Amino acid sequence: MDTLHLSRHISSQFNEEIEQIRNHVMAMGGLVEQQLHHALQAIANSDTDKAQQVIDNDRKVNDWELTIDNECTRIIARRQPAASDLRLVMTILKTIADLERIGDETRRIAMVALESFNTEQQDLLVNLDNLGRHVWQMLHDVLDAYARMDVEAALTVYKEDKRVDREYEAITRQLMTYMIEDPRSIPKVMNVLWSARSLERIGDRCKNLSEYIIYLVKGKVVRHSDESELERNARS
Amino acid sequence: MDTLHLSRHISSQFNEEIEQIRNHVMAMGGLVEQQLHHALQAIANSDTDKAQQVIDNDRKVNDWELTIDNECTRIIARRQPAASDLRLVMTILKTIADLERIGDETRRIAMVALESFNTEQQDLLVNLDNLGRHVWQMLHDVLDAYARMDVEAALTVYKEDKRVDREYEAITRQLMTYMIEDPRSIPKVMNVLWSARSLERIGDRCKNLSEYIIYLVKGKVVRHSDESELERNARS
């Protein structure tokens, strides 16, 4: 990002402030990533304390969003940034909105874990574990790409979402078979299904984050465009 | 909104532009409301043409979001609005993001309808119909509150979300019972469940929209606050 925006600024005050906001976004991202990691650990180990901790810490994620939101509004009002700087600030606003939603989905996963997971479901949980690890890796990679403003890495995350979707669909089919074979398991399997759905949604959010990176670096809106169009724009 | 912001402006140019953006938000809202209405009709009547139409028209919703997003960025860059005007523009950005997500959920509902609904599920669909009507009413009311910047009406929508959540939980329980009694129905019931979930999420988004109205009128951030706190702020 440094080479993209910061070096061009006239106002060194803006530089300093935007750098601080950027650090806050990375801190928020780190917290969200940690939350997801802990939620997955809670599921894997039926760890109710850890699940409760994730639920409690969601407030911190929300606080970050409000803080950064305020900082963005303040920098716009005070520094009146021009086009490319403004684009950066606007994209930070979108980024934190997605991070906050990833936090929400993570809290949902922890709530399900707290209510209902037990050793009877070990077989089912193995599937969730793989999907979880996959999505967590996506989140890790997109935050890394964000820190370095790396378009190629963002593009890789963007494409990864399709694989996550397929994995999610496979789990859904498998869980349905499980329910058909043993209807008494339905309420418990449903909980696993909701968590799988939450993970799939987190994958979607990571895809959004990768779009923002491409937008910031390339200056082209790539949202709502199809994959080949996006790839062309990212590499042009 | 007129009495709140527009009369205070020095720049009549800003007035005109923000009024146009506001009109576009209302147009986007109207389209999203219509989309949900059509998706519910498609479910009720197993109308595949209508479902396909909803799916196709989601592109229009996305186009509106990009258009208004651009307009907001442009008005900030060109008019450099001060605090309360900037707050208005930032809140419009959040509003259209939620409207776009409501559009996404609506498209999902239409896709499920297209794939899988048939007369065998008439009993189940009646439940979805009630929940759908309830959520659609919420969307209608919050857009109406938005047009008039009516805090009391926004507060009513905000509270309504709890009732939608309870209705959704009741449907989930009922559908699970149905699956347990007739395991062959599971794949079809699952589709109804996903649509119920989408409707519940639309309710959440309407709640967000009502928070923005309260924020705009009262100037206090009410997101992430609990209901009594929000009510106190809204009425202070």
TrEMBL record, chains A, B:
InterPro entries (UniProt xref): PhoU (IPR028366), PhoU-like_sf (IPR038078), PhoU_dom (IPR026022)
SUPFAM superfamilies, sorted: PhoU-like
Residue ranges of every copy of the PhoU domain listed in the record: 27-111, 130-213
Keywords of this entry: Cytoplasm, Phosphate transport, Transport
The keyword Acyltransferase belongs to this UniProt entry's keyword annotation: no
GO cellular component terms, semicolon-separated: cytoplasm
Compartment(s) where it occurs, according to its Swiss-Prot or TrEMBL record: Cytoplasm
GO BP terms in the entry: intracellular phosphate ion homeostasis; negative regulation of phosphate metabolic process; phosphate ion transport
Gene3D superfamilies: Phosphate transport system protein phou homolog 2, domain 2
TM region positions: none
Role played: Plays a role in the regulation of phosphate uptake.
Family: Belongs to the PhoU family.
Assembly and oligomerization: Homodimer.
NCBIfam families for the chain: phoU_full (TIGR02135), PRK11115.1 (NF008332)
Protein name in UniProt: Phosphate-specific transport system accessory protein PhoU
